[in-house]
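Contributing new records

If you add data, match the layout below exactly. Sequence lines come first and carry their own label; structure lines follow with theirs. Keep one chain per record. Anything else will be rejected by the validation script.
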Amino acid sequence: MKIAISGKGGVGKTLLASLLSKVLFEDGYSVLAIDADPDTNLAASLGFPHPEKIIPISEMKDLIAERTKTQPGKAGIYFKLNPKVDDLPEKYWQETGGVKLMVMGRTKRGGSGCYCPENVLLKALISHLLLSRNEVIILDMEAGIEHLGRATAGAVDKLIMVVEPGRRSIETARTINGLARDIGLHHMAVVGNKVRSQPDREFLISSLPGLEFIGFIPYDPAIVAADQTGLSLFDASQPVTDEVKNIYRRLVPMEQKQTAESSPLKK
């Protein structure tokens, strides 16, 4: 399975990515979580003891220079467009509690030169992870689908848009939905987060007609407290964890799980 998670900043993408990674691992899958959000909070949510010490791939200047045939710190007109990346996961992933993690870091944009060695390496690496790896991949993205393209859209089994009961969150989801369809990504679903009441659920469903909702994560201040104190999110709130388990069951129906028992995705 290859699952991409997107949505407006602050809606709970990283919460879902981290808990879903844990649930999948506990059910026997080999899981590689990818932090492709510039805020890089997934390591902390997964319980890494010193997440601030993890260096994003986009900041590994020597590696980027080696693989793209450029000089560190110098702008180059010519560089390799198909860098070797198949050996990078084993070299640069971190692991805690059985879940593996790679942190991508920021991509360059606009006037800073979008088509640059850093971006080329990141896109090649994410393409390799989605197209060639034999783990479950959970991709925690920023508020968009910048890391995906037509070549990799077909490899994504499900794009999950996380929304909260608010207009800006809904508008971001609509934009992501349109962008995804433009590149041929049609396997989309929605997860509502910070849901306090039945009217919240009804607001979300009515605001995004035609989209499949696969879960509604309840608001629980215990999650906020755990995040502030650095405690495990997985153990912070039983209602939240239970709903993420329900989301997992909807993503992986029983007949698919039975077929997957002998798959190399399993540990």
